[in-house]
Amino acid sequence: MTVTAKNSKGTELFVGTASGVDADSYLDGVAQEQISDVSFPNSASHRFTPGDAKPEADIADRDWWISSDTGKTVAKTFDLDAEPQVLVIAPANSDDSLDGTTVSLQMRVKGVFALSLLGIAGTIILAGFSVFFFMRWWASRIRPPKKDVGPPSGSEPDSNDSGPGPGAGSSSGRDGREPAADRTVKGEPGPATQPISTVQPDTAGQAPPRRRDLRNRRSFRAVTASVLGTGLVLSGCANMPIAKPSSPDTTPYERTAVRPGEAGKFMTNYTESLDKTLGDKGSDLDKIQAAPLIDHTRAQIQIADKAKQKLRAPNFTEVVAGSPNFTEYPMWFYAFGTADKKSTDGDKQLTQVMLVTRESASTDPLVRSASYIPTDQMPTLMADDSGAVEKGPEDFSEDLTTASGDVSSFLVDGKAKSGGPEGLKEGGFKGFRDYLGDLRDKDSGFDKVDVDCKPYEDLKFEDMTLSTENGAIGMGEVRCTLTIKAPSDYALDLGDTVEAVKTNDKEGDTIKVDTAHPYVLMKTGDELTAVATDWNVLSSKVE
To answer: Is residue 375 within 8 Å of 338, Cβ to Cβ?
Structure first.
């Protein structure tokens, strides 16, 4: 089927196909005309839904369109037995309208001409049979019935009939009457015709003939002719099945948050956007990131600017994405990108793990958390035929909640609890503890260094986990606050990093520093492992 839209006023049109979950979310609250059913050749079911004059975001900028095109005349051809999709026709410029737009549908079906010929031939044959049976019925209706040979059973011979009797001559014929020649010669008058004898030879023991009842035969012929005639009429009125498509099914729609094959496209777009944002000192960062990650990036931009350094996004050599199968917004997914060795420090190759959310089809995907793990620790995701990955089991969500408390406790006192996750004495966790040790060293000159740590609660990490081949994977974050007190006769100097993120210019002997500690929690069998490659300074202020 081909759907064509043409605007008589020269307005630029947009046509796109999308999964229903995207189209429904994008057009929610927008004035629209919905065509839900089409019956060929000239009937359609449609209704108008009132709402806003235009969507929140430009229609052509959405990344979830399966196919799209623009022009004063646009068209889309698709198979009737394809997976259900929504086809959207709108003005390419959101400030324009669809006034003067005509939408038409055309369908190409193979074999219609041949089947039409067969239908015509069948119709002719049925017409011939109908006329034949009708004429037979009509002829039998006006034809007189044949006479029977004898009278009805039990009748007596007429007394006026001539027959053999007393005194009959020996020269009479076989039936007892005189030959006609003799009667003529004798001059005896006689009837012009002779009655038929009422007695037939050798029929005494047989049932007498009866008149046939033709009414049943007439009714049968009439019914037969009527049925055939009705069938002929109906065959001429009915549509051939091949020329009538089934009604399009518009619901339900299901798709994964990231369709198979689109993970690489997302990571490429995100990297390019992040590079541009970092080069513009954080402009439009909120279009690609959200809390808690956006707090880290803003602080890194300030620190790099203070240290005269240049930040850049990592390059990825391999990309994998996983998400449960969602049918509505909001949705989320994990993206895994194996970083180029030149993009990260150290000898080991690292894989960046990102948690991405999307609130609606009108908004862009936002990266909410990002952290690195060694590439050799990257678990295998188990996806089904549609590319969807099952959520982590409930007990892993509980483990993630418990682990956030264990990480917070370790960052405060440096003691790993029995039964807690492995890996707390390595990587970013160890780096923070070493930083605290340096601040508390006698040579540092500080009187007191306190630390308070709590799990980050503004994002429900425990609700966003994935199953892996041998367990599950999730993310978390802990926020800490350092309170550093110096002697009154000392000047505070915590280095460029802390100075770069100061939020006030107050004089004092106490400074508070906020830090962030993102990590990845993995479960393999019964073993839990927390991995953090680094930690971030977020802000500081003097009291």
So the answer is: yes
Residue type, 95: D
Q: CA triplet 70, 326, 367: central angle to 5 degrees?
A: 75
- Tens digits of residue pLDDT in 234-288: 444 444 333 333 444 444 566 777 777 788 889 999 999 999 999 999 999 999 9
- What backbone torsions phi and psi does residue 309 show, to the nearest 5 degrees? -110, 160
Q: Could you tell me which residues come within 8 angstroms of residue 538 by beta carbon, excluding any fewer than 6 positions away?
A: 295, 296, 299, 479, 501, 514, 515, 516
Q: Is the pTM of this model over 0.70?
A: yes
Angle between helices 112-142 and 215-237 (to 10 degrees): 160
**Tokens read off for 230:** 């009705």
> From CA 484, how far away is CA 212, in angstroms rounded?
125
CA–CA separation, 122 vs 517, rounded Å?
Answer: 80
- The owner of tokens 């079906």 is 109
Q: Pick the closest to residue 368 from 276, 477, 283, 446 (CA basis).
A: 477
> Are the CB atoms for 87 and 28 separated by under 8 Å?
no
Helix (H) / strand (E) element for 439: namely: helix 427-440
pLDDT, tens only, 107-127: 876 666 777 778 888 888 888
Of 528, 518, 489, 234, the residue nearest 392 (C-alpha): 528
Report residue 45 as tokens. Answer: 């079911």
Q: Which residues contact 454 (CB under 8 A, 6 or more apart)?
A: 408, 478, 479, 480
Neighbours of 157 (CB within 10 A): 12
